[in-house]
Amino acid sequence: MKQRIITGVVAGAVFLGLAILGGTAFHVLVALLVMIAMTELFKMRKLEILSFEGILATIAALSLSMPTTLYLPKLGTDSNLTLFTLFLFIMMGIMVFTNGKYSFEDLGFPFLSAFYIGIGFQNLLAARENSLFIFFLALFIVWATDSGAYFVGRKIGKTKLIPSVSPNKTVEGSLGGVISAIVVAAIMVFLYPNQAPEIGIFRLIILVAIFSIVGQLGDLVESSLKRYFGVKDSGKILPGHGGILDRFDSMIFVFPIMHLLGLF
Q1: Structure pTM?
Q2: Rounded to the nearest 5°, which phi and psi values hold at 211?
Q3: Residues 211-227: what's their mean pLDDT?
């Protein structure tokens, strides 16, 4: 527990500090997170990240997640998708010259991984550029959901949520997580009313509940991946916490849905 706390404080301070600073420094950090997350996925699948598909998929994830319009303005406003498609086509082209050793189906994992990671971190960066309040709202929703689900689940949790995927999660804990997220979000809006979106308290409660549930789904998706590949954690880069995917699985789902529902 001591190691977990130390890691959480140090890693959290670096991430939040650079997020508040914003700009290129935060973009570099996110690029590193994308590369580590891709490495973790490939390692779980027992594939080499330094293979041609690993390198191309990682570059594709970076092209999708990074603000390419800022650094490569001549490529146009849809440069993220254009570059992602380019690397997909390159991999499909390489498939032609492998004499059947690399098939169309083999493309699925690398580029689904690239899209999964890339689109999540793309929206994380977009939220940060649009509104620091929305960015922190997403983080606190995820953290409050995790904490609420953990403590309520330990205290009164009896009904298993999806035991085949995550045997320790309970329905009671899940509901506790949603309630915790709503309370934390309401406190944030009360403390910073001028920065909060003008959507009304009822709509806010509904949206926060949706984001909390979506965040839990993101966590369950990663749990399902780990169970399928037979690993306990996605990685070991964060002592006591596991890997980058273990920490960002919920956010990868929450930020795109926040974007979809118009919060940024």
Answers
A1: 0.92
A2: -65, -40
A3: 97
